[in-house]
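call fold(seq) -> C-alpha cells
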Amino acid sequence: MSGSQDLLARVRGRLALAGEAPTPASIAAAIRAERGSAVGEAALRGHVARLRSELIGAGPLEPLLADPSVTDVLVNGAAGVWVDRGKGLQRARLRLDAAAVRALAQRLATACGRRLDDAQPYVDARLPDGTRLHAVLPPIAVDGPCLSLRTFRRRGFSLDELVSVGTVSEEIAPVLAAVVVARLPYLVTGGTGSGKTTLLNTLLGLTPQSERIVVVEDAAELRPAHPHMVGLAARAANAEGAGEVTMRELVRQALRMRPDRIIVGECRGGEIVELLAALNTGHDGGAGTLHANSPADVPARLEALGLLGGLGRDALHAQVASALRVVLHLDRASEGRRLREIDLLSPGSGSRVRAELAWRVTGGLGPAAGELARMLAERGAAIPQLLTEGRPPAGSSPRDGAT
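ret:
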C-alpha cells in the first residue's frame, strides 16, 4: 500500500472510531494525530483536499468534475476515462483499474443512499452536490464496472451566453424570448446530451418574476435564475420496494400548488397525460423536454407516452393540438450543441398533429413562420424582426410528424 493510501486508511479508521463526519476540520485533526505537529500548513491543506475527495468526493475523478467546461465524465472499467467538454468525447489522461472503479462507484452510490452490489448491479442517483450518477457492475457490465457522471452547473446560462457559445444563433434569440413572454407552451427536444436541459433552464429564467413556476423532474436538474420556482423530484422505491413517488403523481400535486407555469423536466412516461390535461385547463406557458431524433418524430413519441398513460391515439392528438404548440429542437454538431430548428405542432390530415417548420439554422424561415408570428401577436408579444422581415425559403413544405 502506498504512503498516501496508508494515510487514507488510518485517517478513515480514526474518523470511524470517533464517529465523526469527514469534514475538513476533522480530517485535519486526524492527519495531525497521525503525522504530528510538524506538518506544515500548505502540506496539511493539500492532504485535507486529497483525502476529503477520496473519502466523500469522486477521488481521482474530482479534478475532471471541477473543470467548469466538463459536462460528462465516463469511466469504461479499466479501458479508460472519457470526458465531454461540449464538443464530443475526448479521452482523459487517467487510468483506473477495475477494482478502483468498482470501489468508487459503490462509495458514490452509498453517498446517495443507494445500494450497489452483485444483487443490485446498477444505480441511477444524484450526489449531494447535484452531480448525476449512473453505474453498472459486472456481470451486467460485460467488460468491467462502468461509471457515468453528469455535472451540475450551479449557475444557468443566460440567453446571451448561449448565443456567445453558439448554441443559439443571434437572429433567433429574440424569437425564443418572445415565445416565453407570449406564454406559448413548448417542448425542447433532441438526443441525449444535446443541451435540452440547459436551454430549458435558460428560457425559464426569462419568465416574468411575478409568475410562479412549479418544476417536476425525475432528478432535480433545473435551477433557473428565477425568484419563484418550486422544484419537485420523483423518488425511487427503497430496498423494501416502498416509498416510490412517480412523476405522474408529482404532476398531479403540482396542479394543486397554484402554478402559473408547470414544467416537466423530462417527459418519459404516463405523466404526459397529466401535463396535457394541465395545459388544456388554463395553465399556459408550460414546457418540458423530450427525447426525439427530429421534430417530425415528436408526434409519434407523444403517442407512445400517451399509451403508457392510458390515452388513446385520437384523444392524444386532440389534446396535443390544443395544448402544445412549439418545438425547439437541438442537436450535437462537431462544433458543439446548437438549436437546429423551431417547429409548430398543428392539426393535419385526419386530425393528426404534424410538425411544420418555422425556422432552421441552415435555411432560415419555413412555412410556419407566419403562423408563429400571428400567435405571438395574438398573445400580445412583440413580433421579432426576423419574423417580420424574413421570407420562407422557396420550395419549403410542411412535414408530417405522425403516420
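The domain at 159-389 is CATH 3.40.50.300 (Rossmann fold).
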